[in-house]
């Protein structure tokens, strides 16, 4: 699998930094805009709520005044029953004395008109903001129309257009007397609303959605209100934020200008934005610096490594680096190449030594006396007519010779070595009164464990040669266990017999791993130790002991397990 270059990884890291920062900036702008929009909507809604609440409270106050006057005032009742014009005028004048107080307390009220049907008498009082003669005359003329009393709505406020002005009226009457309060909607929503700090545009609609006050062109054909209670509209190039309130049968819309890209940051937010922008702007400069100070030196170093990989071991990195870290890497690299060159020489020498040891092992395994004895046994068996034993002996001997004469590989699987050990034990038992018995206890996971050829076979041969006793069956036990340690998995191999065992001198000499001459004792065992050390180094360990129970020699090997073998075992499991 192709591995990504460091340059690409660093670019991806910087992109991984830049993209989240950009996203965070976008989110910051979005949520800041949302926060400012909600804050603007809350301020507009608060101002509109203050105005509409006061407006509605005043309407309720006027309505309560009218109802109380019509139901509880004796003079009003007297006026409704009065036929004398002079007396009616006096009653009307007395009732009208309370109108100025009502007008002063409710600035939205344009005026209050008292009408006596019996005397065709009108008494009206008007607020300071409604001192226009034409408005007053239009209102009184409307209320004085024949049959107008029947058109009055007495169950709440109602809308009437009088003289091209839209009024909100509330009427009460008793018999022939009526009392009407008038609110000029245009005056209220175009003039008085400014006293509440509402500098935007106000549009008033009825329940049917018809615009009563304000410019209908400011509104789109359809408005979508969000959960916060406001909506954003755009008519032409103008964007506005709209909030609404309900007052009686009126829907009041307040429109304030809104800039979509207007973001009002807090001081800490400004610092965050400036920091993020600085990081984004710094990334190209950092990449350029890294190209000069990291990528270029690494390219030169890799080029030197490629030349060394092609066999030019005399090449050394001679680039003059401008930073201490790459200078240290350069010096360490050159020292490492020197060490590799020396290790290559040492490895060649070890290879020669390993070959000498292998030849020694071959010579040790081919014991002329053992082969000659086998041939003599064959001759004797043929002479005595034991042809089947002779055939078996020849077959086992051929297997033995083929194995020890034909191996060329550095290692052989454990199961192959075990088969040869059993073959040798069977070969040593043919025609003998005291046979050799081999018992194997092998962990299936170690079946493919690589071993130096004829290593376990040498241990079995040593047991047969030195441990066999007359009149007693020699039992050799071969075990292979998988051990899990903190440093990894190990293979625990042992070859034990019930023979005479090692002497104290043998144990001291064998466990000290002192080399022996070819004509000395236990040369084969020492040869196995050296071959294991060449193959596994310090990771291998071998112990020579005697069995505590039943006597006999015991040789135990501790070998590391090849990671490749571990992987195969895991797949098999």
From TrEMBL:
Q: Which InterPro entries match?
A: Bact_2-comp_sensor_kinase, HAMP_dom, HATPase_C_sf, HATPase_dom, Sig_transdc_His_kin_internal
According to the record, the segments passing through the membrane are 12-35, 268-289
**What Gene3D superfamilies has UniProt attached to this entry?**
6.10.340.10, Histidine kinase-like ATPase, C-terminal domain
- Pfam families, per this entry? HAMP, HATPase_c, His_kinase
Q: Which CDD domains match?
A: HAMP (cd06225)
Indicate where this protein is primarily found.
Answer: membrane
Q: What is the protein name given in its UniProt record?
A: Histidine kinase
């Amino acid at each position: 699998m192709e591995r990504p270059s460091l340059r690409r990884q660093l670019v991806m890291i910087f992109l991984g930094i830049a993209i989240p920062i950009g996203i965070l900036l976008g989110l910051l702008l979005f949520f800041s805009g949302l926060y400012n929009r909600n804050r603007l909507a809350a301020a507009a809604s608060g101002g509109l709520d203050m105005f509409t609440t006061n407006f509605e409270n005043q309407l309720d106050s006027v309505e309560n005044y009218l109802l109380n006057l019509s139901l509880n005032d004796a003079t009003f009742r007297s006026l409704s029953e009065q036929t004398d014009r002079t007396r009616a005028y006096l009653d009307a004048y007395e009732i009208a004395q309370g109108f100025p107080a009502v007008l002063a307390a409710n600035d939205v009220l344009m005026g209050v008109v008292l009408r006596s049907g019996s005397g065709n008498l009108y008494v009206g009082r008007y607020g300071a903001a409604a001192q226009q003669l034409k408005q007053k005359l239009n209102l009184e003329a409307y209320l004085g129309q024949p049959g107008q009393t029947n058109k009055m709505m007495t169950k709440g406020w109602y809308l009437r257009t009088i003289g091209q002005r839209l009024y909100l009226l509330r009427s009460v009457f008793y018999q022939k007397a009526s009392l009407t309060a008038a609110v000029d909607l245009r005056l209220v929503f175009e003039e008085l609303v400014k006293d509440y700090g509402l500098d935007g545009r106000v549009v008033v609609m009825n329940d049917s959605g018809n615009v009563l006050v304000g410019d209908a062109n400011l509104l789109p054909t359809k408005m979508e209100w969000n959960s916060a209670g406001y909506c954003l509209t755009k008519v032409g190039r103008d964007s506005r934020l709209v909030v609404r309130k309900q007052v009686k049968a009126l829907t009041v819309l307040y429109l304030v200008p809104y800039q979509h890209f207007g973001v009002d940051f807090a001081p800490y937010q400004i610092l965050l934005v400036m920091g993020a922008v600085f990081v984004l702007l710094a990334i190209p400069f950092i990449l350029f610096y890294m190209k000069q100070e990291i990528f270029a030196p690494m390219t030169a170093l890799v080029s030197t490594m490629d030349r060394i990989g092609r066999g030019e071991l005399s090449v050394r990195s001679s680039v003059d680096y401008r930073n201490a870290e790459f200078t240290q890497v350069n010096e360490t690299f050159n020292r490492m190449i020197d060490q590799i060159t020396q290790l290559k020489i040492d490895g060649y020498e070890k290879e020669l030594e390993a070959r000498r040891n292998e030849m020694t092992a071959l010579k040790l395994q081919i014991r002329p006396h053992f082969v000659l004895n086998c041939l003599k046994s064959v001759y004797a068996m043929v002479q005595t007519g034991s042809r089947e034993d002779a055939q078996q002996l020849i077959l086992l001997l051929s297997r033995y010779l083929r194995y020890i004469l034909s191996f060329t590989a550095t290692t052989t699987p454990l199961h192959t070595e075990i088969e040869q050990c059993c073959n040798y034990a069977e070969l040593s038992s043919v025609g003998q009164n005291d046979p050799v018995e081999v018992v194997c206890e092998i962990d299936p996971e170690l079946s493919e464990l690589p071993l130096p050829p004829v290593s376990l076979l040498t241990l079995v041969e040593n047991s047969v040669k030195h441990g066999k006793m007359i009149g007693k069956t020699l039992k050799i036990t071969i075990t292979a266990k998988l051990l899990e340690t903190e440093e990894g998995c190990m293979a625990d191999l042992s070859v034990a017999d019930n023979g005479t065992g090692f002497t104290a001198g043998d144990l001291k000499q064998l466990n000290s791993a002192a080399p022996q001459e070819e004509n000395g004792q236990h040369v084969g065992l020492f040869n196995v130790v050296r071959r294991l050390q060449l193959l596994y180094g310090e990771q291998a360990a071998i112990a020579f002991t005697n069995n505590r129970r039943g006597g006999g020699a015991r040789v135990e090997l501790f070998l590391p397990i090849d990671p490749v073998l571990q992987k195969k075992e895991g797949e098999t499991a």
